[in-house]
Amino acid sequence: MTPKQYLEQARFIDKEISCKLRQLGILRSYVTTMTSRCDGMPRGETRYTAGISTTVARIVDLEREIDEAIDGLITLKRDILRAIDAIEKPELRLVLGERYLHLKPWREIAELLDCDIRTAHRYHSAALKEFRIIS
After folding, report:
1. pLDDT digit string, tens, across residues 11-38
2. In this predicted structure, what is the pLDDT of residue 109?
3. 5, 97 Cβ separation under 8 angstroms
4. CB 120 within 8 A of CB 99
5. Mean pLDDT score, 36-44
6. Which of 23, 46, 100, 107 pairs as cysteine with 7 (C-beta 3.0–4.6 A)?
7. d(CA 88, CA 33)
């Protein structure tokens, strides 16, 4: 695995977590919609109760997946940060930290470094050459 592939894992896991959180919001809105239909009227109430329990079970499972993904992301980011901290030049550390830990776009990274985007990319290339995966 290349240093860039290793670092990009955090980006992808973060995006996966965001996707799962959006799905969790959708499931929770379904439960809210279902419970508003259970208004004490005698018709079809068991159908809604079964739907609610199935959806709540899905919510619990998804919350567990999200918690596990967050735990993995925290561990990975801690390891990435240790490896970034081992790089000597501060501008190289900053590029990697902002790009892979804080998920900043190149424009913002260039502004932080007070340089143009091409220079930020050059720092990035240099940083990847110095980056060593710490096991």
Report:
1. 999 999 999 999 999 999 988 876 555 5
2. 98
3. no
4. no
5. 55
6. 100
7. 55
3-state secondary structure the chain: CCHHHHHHHHHHHHHHHHHHHHHHHHHHHHHHHHHHHCCCCCCCHHHHHHHHHHHHHHHHHHHHHHHHHHHHHHHHHHHHHHHHHCCCCHHHHHHHHHHHHCCCCHHHHHHHHCCCHHHHHHHHHHHHHHCCCCC
Task: Give me the amino acid identity at 78.
Answer: R
Angle at 91 (CA atoms; ends 86, 92), nearest 5 degrees = 50
Return the closest-CA partner of residue 56 out of 32, 79, 77: 32
Per-residue pLDDT tens digits for 78-112: 999 999 999 999 999 999 999 999 999 999 999 99
For 104, list phi and psi in degrees, rounded to 5. -80, 145
pTM of the model: 0.77
Check residue 92 and give its pLDDT.
Answer: 97
Closest alpha carbon to 129 in 99, 78, 92: 92
